[in-house]
Design goal:
The structure is a single chain. The chain is of the alpha/beta class and 520 residues long. It has three domains: 180 residues, Rossmann fold; 227 residues, 3-Layer(aba) Sandwich (Rossmann fold); 68 residues, no CATH class. It is built from 19 helices and 19 strands. The strands form four sheets. Strands 7, 8, 9, 10, 11, 12, 13, 14 and 15 form a nine-stranded mixed sheet that branches. A six-stranded parallel sheet has the order 3-2-1-4-5-6, with helices on both faces. The structure holds zinc ion (ZN).
């Protein structure tokens, strides 16, 4: 069973899920099902895949179900339905490639964790590790998995160094078959660009980790220093975005309005680059002001994206960290040289596909996660622009061909799916056929003479009755909560012992109920 965003949607997770599920299904070795996040009961698309699909979103007419669904944001990732679905399908292997905080419930949920023998199925996880200084809670979640994969060899090293966690291999997303080399001059002309214009492209969401202002500033400096007027910067992103950068300001301040293109896509199907003109542009095809910047909801097709990359001379990902950054894999598949920050997944990409490296000047700790984000050396990025665009045309093209050769040598969906199958085949099947694990919690007792550490151990051993959680991060976290309090909004509030007792009593009752359902 694969847990991801529904394979018929067009998000990055969906595309990954579709490719993986298809290969697992076609291998004829497994019974395949998907727990489809954002999949909605009653949607006819649920019947499109040949495998079984379990949606997570209740029917639009099911008001009560919708209310329950909306009550917990993690229901979007399957928290609300996973127990029932697992009990119905009884998987031997559960596969996921979400972030730790999306799917913590998989590790802390009963069908997985309720027996000392180690659960009923093998949980295989490929976490998006995009930075050093991983949180202890994330590492402890990964540690509870039976199998681990990583998106890139860079993240493999982080898991090893920081969590002493060993992965079975790397299984990155790849470009679909649409991403293949095309005729550069024709691709440019199809977008109304002159065939000799040089294009630098960045494809990315408009959010703070993507360093658009630095890229625009650096590009403007490069134009000024080089005196070139035949090089354009093409940004494929969303604007305006309430989480994102004020692109208009960067473009205006640097006086590069005529040198920066933004992708606009119209309802009529027309996709075109235009000088930046805010969130909406005039569509030359249907003659309406109805074209908007690309966004997650209205992604352009892989065909249009491939055409855009084929019009590109240098693909740049200027970002402070990436879980993968699929766009540069797609660019490499189209024979476009790549330039990325030498940090996180981007470091793997430039290493394996022989790209231009932009080293970080330093790593800066981020307040929300404690992870370290790269501060890239913009002067080095500028030097790459100088270097690449001073090369004769033939060498630029050879560099692109070499990038594609390395891409093909290292990556394919076949290789990625084979990594998952290797892990699956290496883990012996567990059984769902176990006696009910029902336990009776001890009644409430404040135990005033116990220390917080002893009280935490009593709650784990005698109230949730899950001794396997002793001496884990779970225990450590509980001691901290007993000592310092529990987060309430943005404030830490101390709670009496009864509060914690009630929490774990509820948890044990829920476990007992689920075990009764499983064994009936
Ligand atoms: Zn139009």
């Amino acid at each position: 069973m694969v847990i991801s965003e529904f394979s018929e949607l067009s998000t990055g997770y969906s595309i990954y899920a579709k490719n993986l599920l298809r290969q697992l299904y076609q291998s004829n070795k497994y019974d395949v099902a998907e727990l489809a996040c954002y999949g909605e009961v009653g949607d006819p698309k649920l019947n499109s895949p040949p495998w079984k699909v379990f949606p997570t979103v209740p029917h639009p007419d099911d008001a009560q179900g919708r209310q329950q669904y909306d009550a917990d944001p993690f229901n979007a990732f399957g928290k609300g339905v996973c127990n029932a679905v697992f009990n119905e399908w009884r998987p031997d292997y559960v596969l996921t490639f979400f972030d730790a905080w999306y799917s913590d419930h998989l590790v802390n949920m009963p069908s997985y964790y309720n027996t000392v023998e180690g659960g009923m199925f093998n949980l295989i996880w490929m976490p998006t590790v995009d930075a050093v200084n991983q949180k202890q809670s994330w590492l402890s979640t990964y540690k509870a998995c039976d199998g681990l994969l990583c998106y890139t060899d860079w993240s493999r090293d982080v898991l090893k160094n920081e969590g002493r966690l060993f992965t079975h291999g790397e299984a990155p997303a790849c470009g679909s078959e649409e991403f293949a080399p095309g005729n550069k001059a024709k691709a440019k002309e199809s977008f109304g660009l002159h065939k000799d214009t040089k294009i630098i492209t960045m494809v990315s969401r408009n959010q703070r980790r993507k360093l658009f202002p630095d890229l625009i500033n650096t590009f403007a400096e490069y134009l000024e220093e080089s005196g070139r007027d035949d090089v354009l910067l093409w940004l494929h992103t969303s604007y305006p975005d309430n989480q994102g950068w004020d692109l208009s300001r960067s473009i205006m301040d640097n006086e590069v309005c005529g040198k920066v293109l933004i992708t606009y896509a119209c309802e009529c199907g027309n996709v075109f680059p235009n000088h930046f003109c805010g969130g909406t542009a005039f569509c030359g095809n249907c003659h309406r002001w109805s074209a908007q910047t690309s966004n997650v909801g209205g992604r352009i097709s892989d065909n249009d994206m491939a055409r855009m990359l084929n019009a590109t001379d240098l693909a740049v990902l200027h970002s402070n960290s990436e879980g993968q950054g699929i766009f540069t894999w797609q660019a490499a598949a189209c024979s476009v040289p790549i330039c990325e920050v030498d940090y996180s997944a981007m470091a793997s990409a430039v290493d394996k596909m022989d790209g231009y490296k932009v080293p970080p000047i330093s790593l800066m700790e981020e307040i929300e996660t404690g992870c370290k984000r790269a501060v890239p050396d913009n002067a080095a990025l500028k030097a790459v622009f100088h270097e690449h665009f001073s090369l004769p045309n033939s060498l630029q093209i050879m560099k692109g061909a070499e990038t594609r050769r390395k891409y093909v040598e290292n990556y394919s969906w076949d290789k990625t799916a084979a990594q998952w199958m290797n892990v699956i085949d290496s883990l012996p099947v567990k059984t769902w056929d176990k006696g009910a694990n029902i336990a009776n919690p001890e009644p409430f007792n404040e135990h005033p003479y116990m220390s917080n550490t002893e009280y935490a151990r009593w709650l784990i051993g005698k109230v949730t009755v899950q001794p396997e959680r002793l001496t884990t991060f779970f225990e450590l976290n509980l001691i901290e909560e007993l000592t310092n309090g529990v987060m309430e909004g943005s404030k830490m509030r101390r709670q009496p012992r009864q509060f914690f007792y009630d929490r774990y009593l509820w948890f044990r009752d829920r476990l007992n109920q689920l075990e009764q359902i499983r064994c009936n």
